[in-house]
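Quick review question:
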């Protein structure tokens, strides 16, 4: 309830618009937990001041609104985090609903491709697999438009750094291709990415 009151107040003050994207929301949450961890592991004010300085810079460079940054830096105990993040989520633009029509527009040649059922609107991308062809599909937003990427995911799994989330996870080689300059030729691009798309997006 308190979070909704604050959200209403700030929406009034700042024009009633969604001020954050999903990436910024995740970043705010990570930086808040980073500060909380520092507070619980050290009492050295010099160290805490340095941590707050890094967090301030990180969020500022990501264009997070100043008043939200100030709220992050003011966190002192775990009980503050849940209502604060509830408020933040109320000011986030959710991922666009992925309809059958949108999927058909993104992959015109794939007549049987179905749109996945999205259960979480607060994501930076939606991904799903076609196990029969080992294909993986990604949909993400770029400059206000939805973009689709299709590739083949290797069945070989190993430990490594994901090209998307930059975390050390179980990864597999993901290969995409695009038309080359000469007709009938293709260029292939490969990167190791997370096997688990849900944990990848959360990272």
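Suggested answer, residue by residue:
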């Amino acid at each position: 309830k308190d979070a909704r009151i604050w959200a209403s107040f700030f929406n009034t003050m700042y024009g009633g618009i969604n001020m954050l994207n999903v990436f910024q929301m995740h970043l705010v949450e990570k930086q808040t937990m980073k500060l909380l961890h520092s507070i619980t592991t050290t009492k050295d004010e010099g160290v805490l001041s340095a941590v707050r300085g890094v967090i301030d810079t990180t969020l500022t460079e990501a264009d997070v609104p100043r008043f939200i940054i100030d709220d992050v830096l003011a966190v002192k105990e775990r009980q503050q985090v849940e209502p604060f993040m509830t408020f933040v989520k109320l000011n986030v633009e959710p991922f666009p609903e992925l309809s059958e029509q949108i999927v058909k527009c993104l992959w015109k040649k794939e007549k049987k491709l179905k749109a996945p059922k999205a259960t979480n609107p607060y994501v930076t991308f939606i991904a799903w697999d076609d196990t029969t062809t080992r294909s993986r599909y990604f949909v993400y937003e770029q400059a206000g438009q939805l973009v689709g990427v299709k590739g083949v995911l290797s069945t070989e799994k190993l430990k490594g750094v994901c090209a998307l989330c930059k975390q050390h996870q179980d990864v597999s080689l993901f290969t995409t291709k695009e038309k080359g300059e000469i007709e009938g030729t293709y260029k292939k691009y490969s990167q190791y990415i997370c096997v688990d798309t849900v944990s990848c997006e959360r990272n």
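Why it works: Residues 1-18 have pLDDT under 50 and may be disordered. The two ends are 28 Å apart (CA to CA).
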